[in-house]
Amino acid sequence: MSILQTKDLTKVYTGGIRAVDGINFEVEEGEIFGFLGPNGAGKTTTIKMLNTLIPPTSGTATVAGFDVVKNPAEVRKRIGYTAQNVGVDERATGKENLTLYGHFYRLNTKTIRQRLKDLFELVELTGAEDQMVSTYSGGMRKRLDLAMGLIHQPRLIFLDEPTTGLDPQTRASIWDHIRNLAKTMGVTIFLTTHYLDEADKLADRVAIIDHGKIMTIGTPKELKHTVGGDVVTISSDEEGSEASADFQQKARKALSGKDFVQQIQESNGSLAIIVASGESAVPKIMRDLGAEGVEVQTLTVSHPSLDDVFLKYTGRTIRAQEGTQTTFTQMRLRSNRRS
Amino acid sequence: MDAIADTWFIIFRDLKSRIRMPVFIFITMFQPILWLVLFTQIFKSLGNTPGLGTSSYLQFFAPGVLVMTVLFGSAFSGFATLIDMDMGILSKMLATPVTRTSIVLGRIIATVVVLLVQAIIIFIIAIIMGVHLSTGVAGALLTLFLISLLGLGYAAFSNGFALLFKRQEIVMAVTNLMTMPMMFLSSMMMPSSALPGWLNTARHFNPVDYAIVGARDLVLKGYIWSDLWKSLVVLGAWATVGIIFGTMMFRTKTE
Q1: Do B93 and A91 touch (CB under 8 A)?
Q2: Residue pLDDT, tens place only, A85-96
Q3: How confident is the model at residue B255 (pLDDT cuts 50, 70, 90)?
Protein backbone atom coordinates (compact mmCIF):
# COMPACT_ATOMS: atom_id res chain seq x y z
CA MET A 1 0.00 0.00 0.00
CA SER A 2 1.44 3.33 -0.93
CA ILE A 3 0.81 6.23 1.42
CA LEU A 4 2.14 8.90 -0.91
CA GLN A 5 2.04 9.25 -4.68
CA THR A 6 3.07 12.10 -6.93
CA LYS A 7 2.24 12.56 -10.58
CA ASP A 8 4.32 15.00 -12.66
CA LEU A 9 4.70 17.17 -9.57
CA THR A 10 6.26 20.47 -10.62
CA LYS A 11 7.16 23.75 -8.95
CA VAL A 12 8.26 26.73 -10.96
CA TYR A 13 9.17 29.76 -8.88
CA THR A 14 8.67 33.30 -10.10
CA GLY A 15 11.65 34.01 -12.31
CA GLY A 16 11.17 30.71 -14.10
CA ILE A 17 13.33 28.50 -11.89
CA ARG A 18 12.04 24.93 -12.18
CA ALA A 19 12.85 23.81 -8.63
CA VAL A 20 10.95 20.55 -9.06
CA ASP A 21 10.48 19.28 -12.58
CA GLY A 22 7.75 16.71 -13.09
CA ILE A 23 8.61 14.08 -10.52
CA ASN A 24 6.78 10.76 -10.12
CA PHE A 25 7.23 8.42 -7.19
CA GLU A 26 5.41 6.44 -4.52
CA VAL A 27 6.19 5.86 -0.87
CA GLU A 28 5.07 2.59 0.69
CA GLU A 29 3.37 2.51 4.08
CA GLY A 30 5.88 1.83 6.86
CA GLU A 31 9.08 2.41 4.92
CA ILE A 32 11.84 4.95 5.40
CA PHE A 33 12.06 6.74 2.08
CA GLY A 34 15.17 8.82 1.46
CA PHE A 35 15.36 11.75 -0.90
CA LEU A 36 19.06 12.22 -1.68
CA GLY A 37 20.44 15.17 -3.53
CA PRO A 38 22.81 18.13 -3.27
CA ASN A 39 21.66 21.48 -1.90
CA GLY A 40 19.38 23.23 -4.34
CA ALA A 41 18.28 19.98 -5.97
CA GLY A 42 14.63 20.58 -5.06
CA LYS A 43 14.35 18.45 -1.93
CA THR A 44 12.88 21.09 0.37
CA THR A 45 10.54 22.38 -2.34
CA THR A 46 9.23 18.84 -2.80
CA ILE A 47 8.68 18.39 0.93
CA LYS A 48 6.88 21.73 1.15
CA MET A 49 4.50 20.77 -1.64
CA LEU A 50 3.81 17.42 0.01
CA ASN A 51 3.09 18.93 3.42
CA THR A 52 0.82 21.64 1.92
CA LEU A 53 3.09 24.61 2.71
CA ILE A 54 3.37 25.63 -0.94
CA PRO A 55 1.08 24.81 -3.87
CA PRO A 56 2.51 22.91 -6.86
CA THR A 57 2.64 24.74 -10.17
CA SER A 58 1.34 21.63 -11.90
CA GLY A 59 0.94 17.93 -11.29
CA THR A 60 -0.66 16.25 -8.32
CA ALA A 61 0.34 14.66 -5.04
CA THR A 62 -1.73 12.42 -2.81
CA VAL A 63 -0.63 12.15 0.79
CA ALA A 64 -2.28 9.75 3.26
CA GLY A 65 -5.18 9.39 0.86
CA PHE A 66 -5.86 13.07 0.20
CA ASP A 67 -4.89 15.46 -2.54
CA VAL A 68 -2.55 18.17 -1.22
CA VAL A 69 -4.25 20.92 -3.22
CA LYS A 70 -7.90 19.88 -2.95
CA ASN A 71 -7.82 18.73 0.64
CA PRO A 72 -4.88 20.26 2.50
CA ALA A 73 -6.67 20.25 5.87
CA GLU A 74 -7.10 16.47 5.80
CA VAL A 75 -3.46 15.99 4.80
CA ARG A 76 -2.25 18.19 7.67
CA LYS A 77 -4.14 16.11 10.24
CA ARG A 78 -2.29 12.99 9.15
CA ILE A 79 1.29 14.16 8.81
CA GLY A 80 4.11 15.39 10.98
CA TYR A 81 6.83 17.75 9.79
CA THR A 82 10.33 18.57 10.94
CA ALA A 83 11.88 21.42 8.99
CA GLN A 84 15.51 21.92 8.14
CA ASN A 85 15.90 24.63 10.75
CA VAL A 86 14.51 23.45 14.04
CA GLY A 87 11.04 24.91 14.51
CA VAL A 88 10.92 24.80 18.29
CA ASP A 89 10.19 27.88 20.37
CA GLU A 90 13.21 28.52 22.57
CA ARG A 91 11.27 31.06 24.62
CA ALA A 92 9.13 28.24 26.02
CA THR A 93 9.71 24.93 27.81
CA GLY A 94 9.80 21.57 26.07
CA LYS A 95 6.45 20.67 27.57
CA GLU A 96 4.85 23.94 26.43
CA ASN A 97 6.10 23.40 22.88
CA LEU A 98 4.68 19.91 22.75
CA THR A 99 1.39 20.85 24.43
CA LEU A 100 0.81 23.65 21.93
CA TYR A 101 1.14 21.17 19.07
CA GLY A 102 -1.21 18.78 20.84
CA HIS A 103 -3.79 21.58 20.80
CA PHE A 104 -3.10 22.40 17.17
CA TYR A 105 -3.88 18.77 16.33
CA ARG A 106 -7.18 19.08 18.26
CA LEU A 107 -6.25 16.62 20.99
CA ASN A 108 -7.93 17.05 24.34
CA THR A 109 -5.93 17.98 27.41
CA LYS A 110 -6.13 14.50 28.88
CA THR A 111 -4.80 12.81 25.76
CA ILE A 112 -2.03 15.39 25.47
CA ARG A 113 -0.95 14.76 29.04
CA GLN A 114 -0.79 11.01 28.44
CA ARG A 115 1.17 11.32 25.21
CA LEU A 116 3.62 13.88 26.63
CA LYS A 117 5.06 11.31 28.98
CA ASP A 118 5.48 8.63 26.30
CA LEU A 119 6.91 11.05 23.77
CA PHE A 120 9.47 12.52 26.16
CA GLU A 121 10.54 8.98 26.95
CA LEU A 122 10.69 8.04 23.29
CA VAL A 123 13.01 10.93 22.40
CA GLU A 124 14.88 10.61 25.71
CA LEU A 125 14.07 14.05 27.03
CA THR A 126 12.50 12.86 30.28
CA GLY A 127 13.65 15.23 33.01
CA ALA A 128 14.08 18.16 30.64
CA GLU A 129 10.36 18.73 30.03
CA ASP A 130 10.14 21.85 32.15
CA GLN A 131 13.43 23.39 31.10
CA MET A 132 13.42 26.31 28.73
CA VAL A 133 14.31 25.17 25.22
CA SER A 134 16.95 27.93 25.11
CA THR A 135 18.98 25.73 27.50
CA TYR A 136 18.67 22.66 25.22
CA SER A 137 21.57 21.42 23.08
CA GLY A 138 21.19 21.12 19.31
CA GLY A 139 20.47 17.41 19.54
CA MET A 140 17.86 17.92 22.28
CA ARG A 141 16.10 20.54 20.17
CA LYS A 142 16.04 18.23 17.20
CA ARG A 143 14.57 15.46 19.34
CA LEU A 144 11.90 17.79 20.70
CA ASP A 145 11.22 18.86 17.13
CA LEU A 146 10.70 15.20 16.20
CA ALA A 147 8.36 14.66 19.14
CA MET A 148 6.28 17.72 18.15
CA GLY A 149 5.56 16.12 14.80
CA LEU A 150 4.45 12.89 16.46
CA ILE A 151 2.00 13.95 19.15
CA HIS A 152 -1.03 13.25 16.94
CA GLN A 153 0.37 9.83 15.99
CA PRO A 154 0.58 10.59 12.30
CA ARG A 155 0.86 7.91 9.65
CA LEU A 156 3.61 9.76 7.86
CA ILE A 157 6.30 12.20 8.93
CA PHE A 158 8.46 14.45 6.79
CA LEU A 159 12.00 15.07 7.99
CA ASP A 160 13.82 17.74 6.03
CA GLU A 161 17.55 17.19 6.50
CA PRO A 162 17.15 15.87 10.03
CA THR A 163 20.85 15.86 10.95
CA THR A 164 22.26 18.84 9.06
CA GLY A 165 24.51 20.89 11.30
CA LEU A 166 24.67 18.30 14.08
CA ASP A 167 27.89 16.72 15.37
CA PRO A 168 28.62 13.06 14.48
CA GLN A 169 27.54 11.57 17.82
CA THR A 170 24.29 13.50 17.79
CA ARG A 171 23.67 12.44 14.20
CA ALA A 172 24.09 8.79 15.15
CA SER A 173 21.66 9.20 18.03
CA ILE A 174 19.08 10.93 15.80
CA TRP A 175 19.42 8.05 13.35
CA ASP A 176 18.67 5.61 16.16
CA HIS A 177 15.60 7.61 17.08
CA ILE A 178 14.36 7.67 13.50
CA ARG A 179 14.83 3.90 13.14
CA ASN A 180 13.11 3.42 16.46
CA LEU A 181 10.11 5.48 15.32
CA ALA A 182 9.71 3.47 12.17
CA LYS A 183 9.89 0.26 14.15
CA THR A 184 7.87 0.98 17.29
CA MET A 185 5.24 3.35 15.88
CA GLY A 186 5.05 1.93 12.38
CA VAL A 187 5.16 5.46 11.03
CA THR A 188 6.22 6.02 7.45
CA ILE A 189 9.20 8.35 7.19
CA PHE A 190 10.02 10.58 4.26
CA LEU A 191 13.41 12.15 4.75
CA THR A 192 15.60 14.36 2.65
CA THR A 193 19.35 14.44 3.02
CA HIS A 194 22.51 15.39 1.24
CA TYR A 195 24.53 12.92 3.33
CA LEU A 196 25.25 9.71 1.45
CA ASP A 197 25.83 7.72 4.63
CA GLU A 198 22.51 8.90 6.04
CA ALA A 199 20.57 7.73 3.00
CA ASP A 200 22.53 4.50 2.93
CA LYS A 201 22.16 3.61 6.61
CA LEU A 202 18.61 4.82 7.24
CA ALA A 203 16.54 4.54 4.11
CA ASP A 204 14.78 1.42 2.89
CA ARG A 205 14.56 3.06 -0.52
CA VAL A 206 16.36 6.05 -1.93
CA ALA A 207 15.43 8.46 -4.70
CA ILE A 208 18.30 10.47 -6.16
CA ILE A 209 17.17 13.95 -7.10
CA ASP A 210 19.18 16.50 -9.05
CA HIS A 211 18.09 19.74 -10.73
CA GLY A 212 14.48 19.03 -9.76
CA LYS A 213 14.37 15.63 -11.45
CA ILE A 214 14.43 12.13 -10.00
CA MET A 215 17.36 10.32 -11.57
CA THR A 216 16.73 6.87 -10.09
CA ILE A 217 14.87 5.12 -7.27
CA GLY A 218 15.69 1.88 -5.49
CA THR A 219 16.95 0.27 -2.31
CA PRO A 220 20.52 1.36 -1.53
CA LYS A 221 21.64 -2.16 -2.38
CA GLU A 222 19.88 -2.22 -5.75
CA LEU A 223 21.25 1.16 -6.63
CA LYS A 224 24.77 0.09 -5.81
CA HIS A 225 24.35 -3.03 -7.90
CA THR A 226 23.51 -0.89 -10.89
CA VAL A 227 26.95 0.68 -10.64
CA GLY A 228 28.83 -2.60 -10.76
CA GLY A 229 29.64 -5.63 -8.67
CA ASP A 230 31.19 -6.03 -5.25
CA VAL A 231 34.89 -6.58 -5.00
CA VAL A 232 36.32 -9.51 -3.02
CA THR A 233 40.03 -9.08 -2.47
CA ILE A 234 42.14 -12.08 -1.43
CA SER A 235 45.83 -12.33 -0.68
CA SER A 236 48.35 -14.69 0.81
CA ASP A 237 50.70 -13.54 3.52
CA GLU A 238 53.75 -15.13 1.92
CA GLU A 239 56.60 -12.73 1.32
CA GLY A 240 58.35 -12.40 -1.98
CA SER A 241 57.13 -11.81 -5.47
CA GLU A 242 57.62 -15.41 -6.49
CA ALA A 243 55.32 -16.79 -3.82
CA SER A 244 52.83 -14.08 -4.53
CA ALA A 245 52.82 -14.80 -8.23
CA ASP A 246 52.38 -18.48 -7.50
CA PHE A 247 49.41 -17.74 -5.25
CA GLN A 248 47.81 -15.55 -7.86
CA GLN A 249 48.27 -18.05 -10.60
CA LYS A 250 46.75 -20.88 -8.56
CA ALA A 251 43.83 -18.76 -7.38
CA ARG A 252 43.13 -17.52 -10.89
CA LYS A 253 43.06 -21.07 -12.15
CA ALA A 254 40.72 -22.17 -9.35
CA LEU A 255 38.23 -19.38 -9.96
CA SER A 256 38.31 -18.58 -13.65
CA GLY A 257 35.29 -19.68 -15.59
CA LYS A 258 33.05 -19.93 -12.52
CA ASP A 259 29.58 -18.53 -13.11
CA PHE A 260 29.57 -16.18 -10.09
CA VAL A 261 32.85 -14.49 -11.09
CA GLN A 262 32.54 -11.47 -13.34
CA GLN A 263 36.16 -10.50 -13.57
CA ILE A 264 39.51 -11.14 -11.90
CA GLN A 265 42.16 -8.44 -11.61
CA GLU A 266 45.52 -8.20 -9.94
CA SER A 267 45.88 -5.34 -7.57
CA ASN A 268 48.99 -4.60 -5.48
CA GLY A 269 49.98 -8.23 -5.07
CA SER A 270 46.41 -9.23 -4.18
CA LEU A 271 43.71 -10.62 -6.36
CA ALA A 272 40.50 -8.63 -6.86
CA ILE A 273 37.53 -10.77 -7.79
CA ILE A 274 34.54 -8.83 -9.05
CA VAL A 275 31.24 -10.53 -8.26
CA ALA A 276 27.55 -9.62 -8.21
CA SER A 277 27.16 -10.05 -4.47
CA GLY A 278 30.19 -10.20 -2.21
CA GLU A 279 28.43 -11.89 0.69
CA SER A 280 27.16 -14.83 -1.31
CA ALA A 281 30.37 -15.18 -3.32
CA VAL A 282 32.71 -15.55 -0.32
CA PRO A 283 31.68 -19.13 0.62
CA LYS A 284 31.95 -20.19 -3.02
CA ILE A 285 35.34 -18.59 -3.40
CA MET A 286 36.62 -20.32 -0.27
CA ARG A 287 35.17 -23.64 -1.41
CA ASP A 288 36.71 -23.47 -4.85
CA LEU A 289 40.08 -22.30 -3.59
CA GLY A 290 40.04 -25.00 -0.89
CA ALA A 291 39.37 -27.66 -3.51
CA GLU A 292 42.52 -26.58 -5.36
CA GLY A 293 44.53 -26.34 -2.13
CA VAL A 294 45.06 -22.57 -2.33
CA GLU A 295 45.49 -21.04 1.12
CA VAL A 296 44.07 -17.54 1.63
CA GLN A 297 45.42 -15.41 4.44
CA THR A 298 43.23 -12.31 4.18
CA LEU A 299 39.95 -11.57 2.48
CA THR A 300 38.02 -8.30 2.25
CA VAL A 301 34.68 -7.52 0.66
CA SER A 302 33.99 -4.00 -0.56
CA HIS A 303 30.78 -2.61 -1.99
CA PRO A 304 30.25 0.29 -4.32
CA SER A 305 29.04 3.35 -2.41
CA LEU A 306 26.06 5.60 -3.04
CA ASP A 307 28.64 8.15 -4.09
CA ASP A 308 29.40 5.92 -7.08
CA VAL A 309 25.67 5.69 -7.73
CA PHE A 310 25.31 9.43 -7.56
CA LEU A 311 28.22 9.82 -9.94
CA LYS A 312 26.68 7.40 -12.39
CA TYR A 313 23.29 9.10 -12.49
CA THR A 314 24.29 12.76 -12.28
CA GLY A 315 27.74 12.75 -13.82
CA ARG A 316 29.48 14.15 -10.75
CA THR A 317 29.95 13.40 -7.09
CA ILE A 318 27.65 14.94 -4.51
CA ARG A 319 30.61 16.53 -2.75
CA ALA A 320 31.98 18.15 -5.91
CA GLN A 321 28.57 19.68 -6.47
CA GLU A 322 28.56 21.18 -2.99
CA GLY A 323 32.04 22.52 -3.58
CA THR A 324 30.74 24.87 -6.24
CA GLN A 325 28.60 26.69 -3.70
CA THR A 326 30.31 29.02 -1.32
CA THR A 327 27.56 30.52 0.76
CA PHE A 328 28.22 30.97 4.43
CA THR A 329 25.81 28.19 5.37
CA GLN A 330 27.59 25.84 3.03
CA MET A 331 30.94 26.63 4.54
CA ARG A 332 29.60 26.18 8.00
CA LEU A 333 27.97 22.90 7.08
CA ARG A 334 31.20 21.66 5.60
CA SER A 335 33.28 22.63 8.58
CA ASN A 336 30.75 20.92 10.84
CA ARG A 337 31.07 17.80 8.78
CA ARG A 338 34.83 17.84 9.09
CA SER A 339 34.85 18.18 12.86
CA MET B 1 -14.77 26.77 17.60
CA ASP B 2 -11.38 25.49 16.53
CA ALA B 3 -10.49 29.00 15.37
CA ILE B 4 -11.32 30.51 18.77
CA ALA B 5 -9.41 27.79 20.62
CA ASP B 6 -6.41 28.18 18.30
CA THR B 7 -6.42 31.96 18.76
CA TRP B 8 -6.48 31.48 22.51
CA PHE B 9 -3.53 29.04 22.42
CA ILE B 10 -1.53 31.48 20.30
CA ILE B 11 -2.33 34.39 22.65
CA PHE B 12 -1.42 32.25 25.64
CA ARG B 13 1.92 31.22 24.09
CA ASP B 14 2.76 34.82 23.18
CA LEU B 15 1.85 36.27 26.58
CA LYS B 16 3.74 33.56 28.42
CA SER B 17 6.95 34.32 26.56
CA ARG B 18 6.49 38.04 27.18
CA ILE B 19 5.86 37.56 30.88
CA ARG B 20 9.18 35.71 31.01
CA MET B 21 10.85 38.97 29.93
CA PRO B 22 9.16 41.52 32.22
CA VAL B 23 12.11 43.86 31.76
CA PHE B 24 11.14 44.32 28.14
CA ILE B 25 7.61 45.42 29.10
CA PHE B 26 9.09 48.15 31.28
CA ILE B 27 11.76 49.22 28.82
CA THR B 28 9.15 49.89 26.14
CA MET B 29 7.21 51.98 28.65
CA PHE B 30 10.17 54.18 29.39
CA GLN B 31 9.66 56.51 26.44
CA PRO B 32 5.97 57.27 27.10
CA ILE B 33 6.78 57.87 30.78
CA LEU B 34 9.47 60.36 29.75
CA TRP B 35 6.93 62.23 27.63
CA LEU B 36 4.45 62.19 30.49
CA VAL B 37 6.90 63.39 33.12
CA LEU B 38 9.40 65.59 31.25
CA PHE B 39 7.52 66.91 28.24
CA THR B 40 4.67 68.18 30.41
CA GLN B 41 7.20 69.92 32.67
CA ILE B 42 9.07 71.57 29.79
CA PHE B 43 5.84 72.82 28.24
CA LYS B 44 4.13 73.61 31.54
CA SER B 45 3.55 77.21 30.42
CA LEU B 46 1.36 75.92 27.57
CA GLY B 47 -1.30 75.57 30.25
CA ASN B 48 -2.39 79.11 29.28
CA THR B 49 -3.06 78.14 25.63
CA PRO B 50 -6.62 79.06 24.66
CA GLY B 51 -8.76 76.07 23.67
CA LEU B 52 -6.88 73.67 25.92
CA GLY B 53 -10.02 73.05 27.94
CA THR B 54 -8.02 72.94 31.17
CA SER B 55 -5.40 75.04 32.89
CA SER B 56 -2.98 72.14 33.20
CA TYR B 57 -0.94 71.02 30.18
CA LEU B 58 -0.37 67.66 31.96
CA GLN B 59 -4.12 67.14 32.14
CA PHE B 60 -4.36 68.00 28.42
CA PHE B 61 -1.42 65.87 27.29
CA ALA B 62 -1.92 62.71 29.43
CA PRO B 63 -4.52 61.09 27.09
CA GLY B 64 -2.07 61.66 24.24
CA VAL B 65 0.60 59.68 26.13
CA LEU B 66 -1.79 56.73 26.40
CA VAL B 67 -2.29 56.84 22.64
CA MET B 68 1.45 57.17 22.11
CA THR B 69 2.13 54.10 24.25
CA VAL B 70 -0.19 52.03 22.10
CA LEU B 71 1.19 53.48 18.88
CA PHE B 72 4.85 52.77 19.71
CA GLY B 73 4.11 49.32 21.09
CA SER B 74 1.90 48.01 18.32
CA ALA B 75 4.29 49.23 15.61
CA PHE B 76 6.72 46.43 16.50
CA SER B 77 4.21 43.60 16.78
CA GLY B 78 5.34 42.19 13.43
CA PHE B 79 8.87 41.63 14.75
CA ALA B 80 7.73 38.63 16.78
CA THR B 81 6.24 37.16 13.62
CA LEU B 82 9.54 37.67 11.80
CA ILE B 83 11.38 35.89 14.61
CA ASP B 84 8.92 32.97 14.32
CA MET B 85 9.53 32.94 10.61
CA ASP B 86 13.34 33.00 10.90
CA MET B 87 13.35 30.25 13.50
CA GLY B 88 11.17 27.96 11.39
CA ILE B 89 8.41 28.07 14.00
CA LEU B 90 5.90 29.53 11.57
CA SER B 91 6.33 26.98 8.78
CA LYS B 92 6.20 24.16 11.28
CA MET B 93 2.93 25.55 12.64
CA LEU B 94 1.52 25.91 9.14
CA ALA B 95 2.04 22.21 8.47
CA THR B 96 -0.46 21.48 11.29
CA PRO B 97 -4.25 21.88 11.04
CA VAL B 98 -4.08 25.14 13.06
CA THR B 99 -6.48 27.82 11.78
CA ARG B 100 -4.43 30.17 9.58
CA THR B 101 -6.00 33.44 10.71
CA SER B 102 -5.63 32.45 14.38
CA ILE B 103 -1.86 32.71 14.12
CA VAL B 104 -1.90 36.37 13.11
CA LEU B 105 -5.01 37.26 15.13
CA GLY B 106 -3.55 35.70 18.27
CA ARG B 107 -0.33 37.67 17.89
CA ILE B 108 -2.21 40.97 17.40
CA ILE B 109 -4.48 40.41 20.38
CA ALA B 110 -1.54 39.41 22.59
CA THR B 111 0.25 42.62 21.59
CA VAL B 112 -2.79 44.67 22.57
CA VAL B 113 -3.18 42.86 25.89
CA VAL B 114 0.38 43.83 26.83
CA LEU B 115 -0.24 47.39 25.65
CA LEU B 116 -3.37 47.62 27.80
CA VAL B 117 -1.37 46.58 30.84
CA GLN B 118 1.14 49.31 30.01
CA ALA B 119 -1.66 51.84 29.43
CA ILE B 120 -3.13 51.04 32.84
CA ILE B 121 0.25 51.64 34.46
CA ILE B 122 0.55 54.98 32.59
CA PHE B 123 -2.99 55.85 33.72
CA ILE B 124 -2.02 55.18 37.32
CA ILE B 125 1.16 57.26 37.05
CA ALA B 126 -0.86 60.10 35.49
CA ILE B 127 -3.39 59.98 38.29
CA ILE B 128 -0.60 60.03 40.87
CA MET B 129 0.81 63.11 39.08
CA GLY B 130 -2.55 64.82 39.55
CA VAL B 131 -4.52 64.06 36.39
CA HIS B 132 -8.23 64.11 37.12
CA LEU B 133 -10.52 61.61 35.37
CA SER B 134 -13.84 63.35 34.78
CA THR B 135 -15.68 60.17 33.72
CA GLY B 136 -14.23 57.88 36.40
CA VAL B 137 -13.58 54.17 35.99
CA ALA B 138 -16.22 53.65 33.30
CA GLY B 139 -14.67 56.42 31.20
CA ALA B 140 -11.22 54.92 31.74
CA LEU B 141 -12.46 51.56 30.47
CA LEU B 142 -13.98 53.20 27.39
CA THR B 143 -10.67 55.00 26.82
CA LEU B 144 -8.84 51.67 27.00
CA PHE B 145 -11.31 50.23 24.50
CA LEU B 146 -10.71 53.09 22.06
CA ILE B 147 -6.95 52.81 22.21
CA SER B 148 -7.08 49.02 21.93
CA LEU B 149 -8.92 49.44 18.60
CA LEU B 150 -6.08 51.70 17.47
CA GLY B 151 -3.56 49.12 18.66
CA LEU B 152 -5.33 46.19 16.98
CA GLY B 153 -5.27 47.99 13.65
CA TYR B 154 -1.67 49.13 13.88
CA ALA B 155 -0.37 45.78 15.17
CA ALA B 156 -2.19 44.11 12.27
CA PHE B 157 -0.53 46.49 9.79
CA SER B 158 2.84 45.83 11.41
CA ASN B 159 2.32 42.08 10.97
CA GLY B 160 1.16 42.61 7.41
CA PHE B 161 4.32 44.60 6.64
CA ALA B 162 6.45 41.95 8.33
CA LEU B 163 4.98 39.27 6.07
CA LEU B 164 5.19 41.49 3.02
CA PHE B 165 8.79 42.69 3.46
CA LYS B 166 10.18 39.83 5.58
CA ARG B 167 13.01 41.96 6.99
CA GLN B 168 13.16 43.67 10.37
CA GLU B 169 14.96 46.78 9.16
CA ILE B 170 12.37 47.43 6.44
CA VAL B 171 9.47 46.91 8.84
CA MET B 172 11.16 49.26 11.29
CA ALA B 173 11.67 51.91 8.58
CA VAL B 174 8.11 51.63 7.30
CA THR B 175 6.47 51.78 10.73
CA ASN B 176 8.69 54.69 11.76
CA LEU B 177 7.67 56.44 8.58
CA MET B 178 4.05 56.01 9.68
CA THR B 179 4.29 56.50 13.43
CA MET B 180 5.84 59.96 13.51
CA PRO B 181 3.52 61.68 11.00
CA MET B 182 0.53 60.03 12.64
CA MET B 183 1.67 61.44 15.97
CA PHE B 184 2.35 64.98 14.73
CA LEU B 185 -0.58 65.32 12.32
CA SER B 186 -2.97 65.29 15.24
CA SER B 187 -4.14 67.31 18.19
CA MET B 188 -1.89 65.30 20.51
CA MET B 189 0.27 68.24 21.63
CA MET B 190 -1.88 71.24 20.86
CA PRO B 191 -5.64 71.78 20.85
CA SER B 192 -7.16 71.69 17.36
CA SER B 193 -8.13 75.36 17.60
CA ALA B 194 -4.44 76.29 17.98
CA LEU B 195 -3.31 74.22 14.97
CA PRO B 196 -2.68 75.81 11.56
CA GLY B 197 -5.57 75.26 9.15
CA TRP B 198 -3.95 72.62 6.90
CA LEU B 199 -2.91 70.53 9.90
CA ASN B 200 -6.37 70.83 11.35
CA THR B 201 -7.70 69.40 8.07
CA ALA B 202 -5.05 66.68 7.87
CA ARG B 203 -5.84 65.33 11.31
CA HIS B 204 -9.32 64.33 10.13
CA PHE B 205 -7.69 61.65 7.98
CA ASN B 206 -5.61 60.30 10.83
CA PRO B 207 -7.02 57.48 13.00
CA VAL B 208 -4.64 58.50 15.80
CA ASP B 209 -6.43 61.82 16.13
CA TYR B 210 -9.76 60.06 16.66
CA ALA B 211 -8.23 58.09 19.50
CA ILE B 212 -6.81 61.26 21.03
CA VAL B 213 -10.04 63.24 20.71
CA GLY B 214 -12.07 60.40 22.22
CA ALA B 215 -9.64 59.74 25.06
CA ARG B 216 -9.27 63.45 25.81
CA ASP B 217 -13.02 64.00 25.94
CA LEU B 218 -13.36 61.15 28.41
CA VAL B 219 -10.54 62.44 30.62
CA LEU B 220 -11.24 66.18 30.44
CA LYS B 221 -14.87 66.76 29.61
CA GLY B 222 -17.12 63.72 29.97
CA TYR B 223 -19.15 61.71 27.48
CA ILE B 224 -19.27 63.92 24.36
CA TRP B 225 -21.11 61.41 22.18
CA SER B 226 -20.93 63.53 19.05
CA ASP B 227 -17.13 63.01 19.15
CA LEU B 228 -17.14 59.55 20.71
CA TRP B 229 -19.25 57.77 18.14
CA LYS B 230 -17.03 59.16 15.38
CA SER B 231 -13.99 57.86 17.22
CA LEU B 232 -15.59 54.45 17.68
CA VAL B 233 -16.59 54.17 14.03
CA VAL B 234 -13.27 55.39 12.59
CA LEU B 235 -11.13 53.28 14.94
CA GLY B 236 -13.39 50.26 14.39
CA ALA B 237 -12.91 50.68 10.65
CA TRP B 238 -9.14 51.15 11.11
CA ALA B 239 -8.91 47.93 13.13
CA THR B 240 -11.00 46.05 10.57
CA VAL B 241 -8.95 47.23 7.60
CA GLY B 242 -5.72 46.45 9.45
CA ILE B 243 -6.85 42.94 10.36
CA ILE B 244 -8.01 42.27 6.80
CA PHE B 245 -4.65 43.47 5.47
CA GLY B 246 -2.71 41.44 8.06
CA THR B 247 -4.60 38.20 7.48
CA MET B 248 -4.50 38.69 3.71
CA MET B 249 -0.72 39.08 3.80
CA PHE B 250 -0.58 36.03 6.01
CA ARG B 251 -2.54 33.96 3.54
CA THR B 252 -0.56 35.04 0.52
CA LYS B 253 2.96 35.75 1.77
CA THR B 254 3.86 32.84 4.01
CA GLU B 255 5.24 30.59 1.26
Answers
A1: no
A2: 888 999 999 999
A3: low
